[in-house]
Amino acid sequence: MRHGKKFMHLGRKKAHRASMLSNMACSLIEHKRINTTVTKAKALKQFVEPIITKAKSDSTHNRRLAFSALRNKYAVSELFREVADKVGDRPGGYTRIIKLGNRLGDNADMAMIELVDFNAVYLAEETTKKKSRRGGKTKAAPKVEAAPAEVVAEATEAQVEAPEADAEAPDAVAEAPEATPENNTEETDDKA
What we know:
By secondary structure, this protein is an alpha+beta fold. The protein folds into two domains: 14-140, CATH 3.90.1030.10; 146-176, no CATH class. Helices cover 56% and strands 14% of the residues. The protein contains seven helices and five strands; from the N terminus they run H-E-H-H-H-E-E-H-E-E-H-H. It has helices at 14-31, 38-55, 60-70, 73-86, 120-128, 149-175, 181-191, and strands at residues 33-37, 95-102, 109-115, 129-131, 138-140. A three-stranded antiparallel sheet has the order 1-3-2. Strand 2 and strand 3 (109-115) form a beta hairpin. The longest helix has 27 residues, at 149-175. It is globular and about 45 Å long.
């Protein structure tokens, strides 16, 4: 019977499974996305999402709980600094699994698991598209055509100041005698 078997065993004993999930979670936090099999990605999602939820409230107790699961102080510090800042307002669903097809060697189903808030491609699409209230269709957001006047004024002031600084340098170069072919021929004529 299958009673009480809620988690995926992944063909490993408990210690090996815990070690593997810990290492995969550290890699996911460090690199923001990793490629693995679909089954391992689903197991990793169940393992890492409660840890990310704990990271949203930075306390000594939550850091110790995260360290006991991850066993890597660099991953814990990055989790509580960068990842917690990005997912602070998200109520859950911190990871995304994207299926990639089958592996060439053994035909295993492969997937990419990534942290949702760190994908620049999806974030760019979300900012340019907004859902309308009718029908759920998407509309492109209006483009900003002109920059604010303050930014333009600061840019022109910076351009005006830069040539003045560069103007002093050519004067120093102009004072030094130039070695041109004309000067060299005159010197050789004088010597002859």
